[in-house]
# Entry
Amino acid sequence: MSDHRRQVPRTDTLLADPQLAAAGERLGRGLVKDAVQRVQQRIRDGEVAPPEAVPAVLASLPSTASSLRPVLNATGVLVHTNLGRSPWSPAAVEAVVAASGTTDVELDLATGRRGPRGEAAIAALLAAVPAAEAALVVNNCAAALALVATALGQGKELVLARGELVEIGDGFRIPDLLVTTGARLREVGTTNRVTLGDYRGALGPDTGAVLKVHPSNFVVRGFTRQVAVAELAAALAGTGTPLVADIGSGLLESHALLLEEPDAQSTLAAGADLVLASGDKLLGGPQAGLVLGRADLVQRLRRHPLYRALRVDKTTLAGLEATLRGPRPPVQQMLAADPAHLRARADRIAARLIAAGVDARAVDSQARVGGGGAPEHPLPSAAISLPAGFAAPLRHGAPPVVGHVDGDRTLLDLRSLPPEADDDLTAAVLAVAAR
Ligand SMILES: *Cc1c(COP(=O)(O)O)cnc(C)c1O
# Structure
């Protein structure tokens, strides 16, 4: 047995160390034990001196019992699906922490009787979208589509334009989702053009609903034609056929910077019977699917057995309500950020990096909404430009920083990063430069 091997502190001894025992209480003993075993191996390999065992274990422990780590999003994509979409407002985080224990999500404390689940979140949604008579919250927008297709389309036809057969990402296709519910798709029009006559020709006794899906992650340009919600609604008036619009992005009212993105209020005001949207895109809250619109249809969905399988957790309801009632969430602040302010931040960070000898410069850049929203709408932004070789070590850093490589430079875009993170970003770059 080598000297190193003989000197490796025993697992029990290390786990009994007061600091490691306290870490075990907080993070779970299994997690600390794994870290201890990794450090014991590093001692055997001669990388760590035996007296340094406890500090080495402490340094290697994650900050929480989850392996998901906070990442600095310098991609310039505001709603980045791979980075968890929208970051929450501090108000939403606080509300979620408060609701995570036992909470009155389905109990009326005044009477002691069972109360309607998530009533306050629904009220906040209805306050934000006055054109909606009622609302329902499910797991995500895909769940809202599945519920609508099941409740309104099972054994019937869903009428949908061919140009709206959207793949939303990672191979998931809305038409595939719709048909798994037992609904039949009645495709109308062509890829680039659809007319009111096409829709009219498809309507009949088998029609369950007419569905409009916002092609949120692509545009068709040139010889194109679509039928607006108002036009479709007028044609469906009196037929009893519901018009359902999947707007995706989660804009509740029209946004001056994103005039081409449909919003819930305008879409309902134009005559849609139901609007479906995501909670974690431009709304800036937790993952959720929002269903807004006619009270009788919302009630039908709520009473459908499938709803029970798609309903959301108490923390989602709390986070959604706080997003709606609280201060402007980060995604909306990022969207509204003044390009001159972004450039000033970039100049400040670049100056600190240059002073430390880093090959850095502030540059103008283009950010994007992302998350399948406003694909053709670049947002003027500013970035820190570094040699391309910085990208990987920045991603491996603590905290990890994700930018994007453009030719031989790594760009760290500031529109997708809250200003409070500028110091952490600067420190991360300096740490890489010092290696
Ligand atoms: C993003 C999107 C969806 C899927 O929403 P999730 O909340 O991710 O399930 C559905 N439809 C449209 C138009 C979208 O943009």
